Amino acid sequence: MKKYILIVVLSILTIAGAMAQDIKKDVEYGQYNGLPRQDQAMQKWRENRFGQFIHWGLYAIPGGIWEGKTYPYASEFLRGSAKIATSTWDSLIYQFDIPKYNPKEWAAIAKNMGVKYVTITTKHHEGFCLWPSEYTDFDIENTPYKKDLLREFVDAYTAVGIDVNFYYSVLDWHHPDWRYDIKSDEDRAAFERLKQFTKNQLVELVTRYPEVKGLWFDGTWDNSWKKSGQFSYELEKLLKNKRPGLIVNSRMRADEHGSRHFDSNGILMGDYESGYERRLPNPTDKEVLTRDWECCMTIPENQWGYHKDWSISHVKSPLELIEMLVQCTSQNGNFLLNFGPMGNGDIRPEEREVAKEIGEWMKVNSEAIYGCGPADLEKQDWGYYTYNEKNGKVYMTVFNNPVLGKYKIRLPKSHTLKKASLITKQVESLEIKQISPTDYFIIPDKINNKKPFVIILEIVDRASGKFHQKALT
Ligand code: FHN
């Protein structure tokens, strides 16, 4: 008898649990424009695939070292790691002389690396503004440099055809009205002022620099911002009205219940997901294919701003970074690779080298990246498939060489592999052997593969003879 009672109770609990999952919360201040966005600006963002992130601020001056001591934690957090008083930190503004700052050279380095967009920190958590802001004195105008470095930056990158986006930290260690939480009327009043300041600065940015394509929000994880769901919704609306086509990341938003990135019903907010920081999805994760997303990545372990000592953590090689870029593309994501310019305005030699090597690879293989996305084919161990919807071609970028010396491809039965060729010799065909109704080997002749390389596949539907179409499987 007891057993039956237990079964009945468990069944009731299971049904109740399932019903609870179906219950939707009312969300008024969630997703603003409906996803996925298909307008031209968003399509361009998607096709770009590869971007450069730039973290530059006062933290570049000490570069992770304070009074002779090296602090291994992220250099842009040195103020906290070394327990430096706000007034001491803020006085670094008088040392922000940047004799080596050459935005045209920065843009040339980025262009040669193959990026199509850049995202620069206009204001990081320390509160220092790279542009002359009407709303604070803690800005470029009060440095020895004085000039609007952001204008020079926007002009240089725009001139070489790289889309410019602005990173903006809502969290502000300099501003007296910043609150981590709102626990009193005084907090509420202060944070209202901070919200007004934030709004003013953002409107100022999109007005002063009409070239800006997107805003990349950060420092939005504290309770104070999570309690500002309606405000961030209205801010998104205001900014998008001022600058049609503007693209914002999911970090900008919380809904009115305090849920970040995704609203209380699991719907993405902003225009793309920006939660992949220094990590990538599992390469076989299909869930990410359903949305736009971006991974931002550091070259060392966790340094965004300039740190003088890169020996304290693993520094990723260009090949590791290329693999991340390809993986992102294969899973419908963009890859944003970070650079931390030095306190004098120069780009450190290690970053120049990374940019050069990635650029050399991109010059040969970027056809497998730009405008590409997932291929809907079963992932194989040699690397990643990417697919260009416009030309119908599938690209396989090989990172791991099988000891068999041949690369396995698995297609749906409805399709057949018509041709395989190296991206570098597209007129010549590689040998193909079909080994089952679905499986093929591509047998390379001689491939000089010290670097990842790309094979282009022409896959056709047996019935129509047409190129590979999305949603094959
Ligand atoms: O704390 C920051 C960090 O310095 C850096 O700006 C990254 C970039 O995604 N965002 C924050 C941590 O999430």
Record the SSE blueprint.
Elements: H1 2-22, H2 40-48, E1 50-54, E2 65-66, E3 69-70, H3 78-81, H4 86-90, H5 103-113, E4 117-123, H6 149-159, E5 163-169, H7 185-208, E6 214-218, H8 223-226, H9 229-242, E7 247-248, E8 273-277, E9 293-297, H10 318-330, E10 333-339, H11 349-365, E11 372-373, E12 383-388, E13 393-398, E14 407-410, E15 415-422, E16 431-434, E17 439-443, E18 453-461
Parallel strand pairs: 1-4, 1-10, 4-5, 5-6, 6-7, 8-9, 9-10
Antiparallel strand pairs: 2-3, 11-12, 12-13, 13-18, 14-17, 15-18, 16-17
Helix pairs in contact: 5-6, 5-11, 7-9, 10-11
The structure holds ligand FHN.
Description:
This protein is α/β, with parallel strands linked by helices and 473 residues long. The chain folds into two domains: 40-369, Glycosidases (TIM Barrel, Alpha-Beta Barrel), CATH 3.20.20; 375-472, Sandwich (Immunoglobulin-like), CATH 2.60.40.1180. It contains eleven helices and 18 strands. The protein has helices at residues 2-22, 40-48, 78-81, 86-90, 103-113, 149-159, 185-208, 223-226, 229-242, 318-330, 349-365; strands at residues 50-54, 65-66, 69-70, 117-123, 163-169, 214-218, 247-248, 273-277, 293-297, 333-339, 372-373, 383-388, 393-398, 407-410, 415-422, 431-434, 439-443, 453-461. The strands form four sheets. It has an eight-stranded parallel β-sheet, with helices on both faces. A hairpin with a 4-residue loop joins β16 and β17. α5 (103-113) packs parallel to α6 (149-159) and α10 (318-330) crosses α11 (349-365). It is globular. The protein starts with a helix and ends in a 12-residue tail after the last strand. The model is unreliable at 1-20 (pLDDT under 50). Residues 74, 76, 218, 277, 296, 304 line the site of ligand FHN.
